[in-house]
Amino acid sequence: MPTEKTLNDLFLDTLKDIFFAEKQILKALPKMARAARSDEAKAGFLQHRDETQEQIVRLEQVFEIVGKPARGKTCEAIQGIIAEGEEFMEEYKGTAALDAGLISSAQTVEHYEIARYSTLKSWAAQLGLDGAVRLLDANLQEEIATDQRLAALGEAAANPKASKQAAE
Length: 168
Prior knowledge:
There is one protein chain. By secondary structure, the protein is mainly α. It has helices spanning 7-35, 39-66, 76-91, 98-126, 130-167. 83% of the residues lie in helices and 0% in strands.
């Protein structure tokens, strides 16, 4: 008879998922920065790369709190989102719509991360992992801020440039 899974198990599995995801995102962000056409988009992707490195450190600290090794678990969702971003880079290379597509892809990543961190933070609180709550909340707040910056960048520059090109 299989062992009954607990919220602790679910927390750890989801923690492994986001750890894997963050490491994949860390690899993808420099590629996105190189592909971006505008200096603002390039800088935004590089800034998020730096934040992602810090988020990985915080996740390693959460693993320490729960007494488990910091290991990822393949996250097919993030792999699909990143693959979609790579398709944008190929299909829209050299076009005014490229940055809009990259920003869209990055926002999809942010929304995934926001969902994961929000859930993990809630579960950590329920499990009495106060130190983990603080660390996960720090990552969550950075993801929310990044999503807002990406939205502003898209609305201010990338989307208008893409729509102007479409009108020509």
